[in-house]
Every structure is written in C-alpha cells, then in structure tokens.
Amino acid sequence: MRKRQIHLDFHTSEKIEGIGEKFSKQQFQEALKAGHVDSITVFSKCHHGWAYHPSEANEMHPHLSFDLLGAQIEAAHEIGVKTPIYISAGYDQKAAVKHPEWIAIGKYGDKPDFSIPYYKRLCMNTPYLDYLLKQIEEVLLRYDGDGIFLDIVGIHRCYCSSCCAAMRQRGWDINDQEKALELAEEAYENYTKCVRETVDKIKPGHKVFHNGGHIRCGRRDLAYMNTHLELESLPTGGWGYDHFPLSAGYARILDMDFLGMTGKFHKSWGEFGGFKHPNALRYEAALSIANGAAVSVGDQLHPSGEMDMVTYRLVGKAYEEVEALEPWLTKGKNIADIAIVSQEAILNYYEKPDMDLIGRDFAGNTGAARILLEGKYLFDVVDTQADWNGYKVLVLPDTILLDTFLQKKMQEFIAGGGKILASGESGMGKDKTGYVLDFGAEWVGENPYNPDYCRPGFEVPNLGISDYVIYEKGQKLNKTDGKELAARMDPYFNRTAEHFCSHRHSPCSGVYGGPGVVEGKDGILISWNIFTEYAKAGSLFSKELVKYSLDRLLGKNKTLTTSLGAQGVATLVDCGTFLRNHLLYCAQVKRGDGVEIIEDILPVYNVQVSVNVGDRVIKRVYLAPQKQEIVFVQKNGTVSYTLEKLENQQVVILECE
Hints:
- The chain is of the alpha/beta class.
- The protein folds into 3 domains: 4-329, Glycosidases (TIM Barrel, Alpha-Beta Barrel), CATH 3.20.20; 336-557, Class I glutamine amidotransferase (GATase) domain (Rossmann fold, 3-Layer(aba) Sandwich); 560-656, Sandwich (Immunoglobulin-like), CATH 2.60.40.1180.
- 26% of the residues lie in helices and 26% in strands.
- It has a 9-stranded mixed beta sheet.
- Helix 14 packs across helix 15 (540-554).
C-alpha cells in the first residue's frame, strides 16, 4: 500500500458551469509533486450522481466538456502516482430524483423530501444496484485505475417498497425489527458479492474498499469484504485525536493493509477554503505510521479543476517526513502487552445492530484507550474472535458481560498466565446476577449512591490519599478472599429536592461502603465505570487508579517504559531484524465549537526509554531517518536510551544481531 495518499472529493452541482476548465496536466502534476503524493483517489461519480468522463452507464456532468477522469489518471501515472477510482455508491442525487422508489426509507424518517438540501441514500435492494454495477464495469473496462473506492455504504434497515415487498414475500412482518435487519444484512452482503464478481470478471483481485465511515469492531465478516481498510478519522471533524489510535488498534489485528484517512480541512469534508495548520498534518501523519498505517489526506477539488497549491504545500510538509522514513516502515508485528476487549465488539457479538445504531455509548473504549495512550502502555483492541493468549492483561471496560463461550475463553486466557482488569459490570455473566470471574469479592447490587467516593489504599502520584469523587455509577461489593486496594465511601445522601448540599453533590460522609477496588485470583476489579468516567470527566485520579492497577498486574513484564509526558504517544513494532520505536509529542487545544486544533509543536528534551527485548542482542540504536547513532545500555534483557530532543515525532531503530 502506498504510504502518501490523497482522497480527492469532487461533489459538484449541475448548477455550476465551467467544470474542469482550469485543469492542467502540468499544474496537476506540480501539485502532486509539491505534496510528495504517491497515490490519489480520483473520481468517476460524485454524490450528485454525475460522471466526470464520457459514459454510457451514466451521464457526464452537463458543464464538463472533456474526460476529466482520464486526464487525471494519465497525468498521475506519468509521474508514478497511483489512481484508485472513486464512485459514490450510497448517494446519487440524480438517480434519487428520477427514481424516488430507489431511496432507502428508514423506520422513523429518511423520507424522499427534496426540500432538504442534502443527498438521499439509495437502497441496494432495488434496481439501483444494477445501475451502479454497470458504472463500475464501465470504469474498469475503460480506465487503468489502481482500485475502486465505493462510498456511503453499510447495513441499514430499510422500508422502501422493494424491501417491504421482499419481507412480505417471505411471510415476514415488516414491523419486525430483527427481520428487517436480517434483510439489510442480506442486501449488503449481496451488494459486496456482486461488486466483487463484477470487478473480478474484468480485473481479478483488483483492490476494492466499501466505505461506511467506520470499521465495525467485531464484524470481521464485513472487514474482509474489502481488500484493504481505510480508517476515516478526521480529528477536527468530530472524530477527535483519540479516535484513530483506538480504530487502528483493532484494524492491525486483522492482518490487512490499512490507512488512516484524515483531511486538510479546518473542520471536515465538504469545506472549501478551510485549512489546518501544517503541524497538525505532520502530527496526524506521524500518528498513522506509528500505528502501522499508511496515510491518506482528504482534499476537495474546486469545480474549475485547478489544484489548490496551498493545500499541496501544506500536505507536502507532512508527506516529506513520511517519505524520508519509508525505508524503515516495513511491515512488522505491533508489540502489545495489553488488549482492550472492545465494547463495540461485544455489542456486535450479542446483537449485530445496523449502522444506524452504532451511535451507542462506547465511552469505556475511549477512556481505556486514552489512559493507555497517556500511560504509554502498548496495546491492541480485540474482538471475541481474536487470539487473546499473546497478551499479558485484558482490559474489560465497564460493560463487558460474559456468556458461556466468553467465560470459557477468558478462563483459558487466565490459565495461560494472563490477568484481567475489569471495571463496573465487566466480568459479570450475561444475566447480571454476579461476577463469573474471581476477583476476590461478591456482588451485592448496583451501588445506590451516585456520585460517591473512592479512598485508595496507596499514595496517588501527584496527589496523595484522600476521598476522590467518582461520577459514574458503580457496583456494591463484599470482600471475600481478595485484597482490597481501595475503599468505596458513601456520601451523606444523593442529591434530591429534599436532600442537597452545596452546588453539586454532598461530601463524603466517612461511612465505609465496601471495597471499591479489589484484587483476586483472576485479576483486579474496579467497581465503578472508571473508563467511562475518564472519557467524560477526565479526572487525574481515575487515570492514576487504572495505572496503579495495570502496573500491579503487569509487574516486571511491561515491555516499554518512558518519561514521555501524558500527551506523548509511544509504539513499538517488531520488524524481525530490528525493532521500531515511534515516539510522538504534541498538545491539542479546543477552539470554537469544540474543534480540536494543533498549531504549536514544542520540543521535549531528554526523553528516557527502556525496552524489554528479552534474549535479543541489540547491536546498535539509531535515529531514523537521520541515521544518527545514540548511546544505549543493555542489561538483564532491557535496553535503555535517552532521546535528547523530540519534536513532533522521532523513530528510534533498535538493530538486532
């Protein structure tokens, strides 16, 4: 997979004239060279439904007078740049206007209301699918592209006339949500199968990606319908800077090539004239390669067809650094001590909801990933199908309930020497009547107080011992044979109209409410939804409580330790003949309506790193791409070195004998 990609949008209204009139092969090539771009996704059909090339399967944009797609492919290939071809699959406004019966209808809306200035999603269970397949076939036959990118697709319950007729024909009640979902699953599987057959008939094995904006953790069947993965994650567009490491943590266990897709925009897709700071793109590109991904930056072409040179000089600042590192970006195995068992994967295991329900609260995932990133713990994100046995600790954030299969899988992991860090309800049976893992405590019921307090039995770094408020709900426990690490302390009362104190909640009463954190044979249980707590409240104590628990469970088996601060990121990749240590540091701020911004990159100095390399012998440690050797010490299986200066990112190579 090419490492320095551009995803070029071109969703252009038929009300705009002069389409492509300023396109120039030379200027197009100059932009790609300025951006250090090695692959650009160019467009066959946009959301408006128009083709940007002569077409018999579709209609060319009425104000385009030449083959823009062909010209772009020719210009890019001439300078060695690949060209996957974009086709809007789920949106086609032109087709929706002509065939409103093709529009996907949601149970509670998505009516074909053309007074709304936005696109209508089309149903793949209608003749629209044949219309789309002919467009794909035409592009494959006429153009030497390097893949197909199909946008705006996924599993959605639909109640259009075709879907309702299909349900009635099978004798199904159209109001049965499960049957509607079953039909939606079938329609999506049939769509991807038909696309694959169409592609393979012309170009066997040609790359195809179906974009739904999200790779669903726990739905490997959907992931494997693609030849590779593109993780849409625009930090300024609502995803935030936490999203990509969590998404990549799952993608890299699937053994598929994948890229991280960000954007050049100040906000998100569809923004003309919006630009982020070059330092933001430098950091986002570094974050992608540190997590084992290639990089893709989203852009949007002006209707005139002229490439914006400000954009490509901006992109070039990031891609120049990626290009310099490419000799060391060989595929390797991400080293992880810890695996987060994904809340989303558990939901998909039990329920398999459609895409419209993906907005459920997975804050526990976010909080867990955030703490592990800030604590410099090496981690992956796993589903129920993953092999858990290579990890030292499994993190079960807040809501991971265990049926018989998952309980057995968990016990096999523990029998192999692994440990569990669970929080809240995690580790309970699916019936929620008690914990089925041995944490040395018994479940009494849901804690009646919210918020309440945690009093640790250890000195909290930077703080000390006190009664710390926790806002998320918790579980009430009785200790059996476990070791209590922290107590739950009751407030005087819950806040009501009759009982309230001060501005927020009542203080700690000093009354002991049972163990709050307990360690047993299988691992440690934090009785609160501590990971959701950190995602939503971000308290220092919550993070330190989790870090203390993880450090107890890992003991001396932690692979990497570093003095790098909380906003830093550290990853470690085993490339066979060398280990690749990525170190990043950058602070984000929020501006406006919550847009996360990176502007200043400030250097940090004298970053200390220790890596447990086991019985490997390290013969040299050096910086890439500088090839500057640095002093290191190897003792008792641990290699230690100090990075004198870190500015945005630094790759350190540990070369093995």
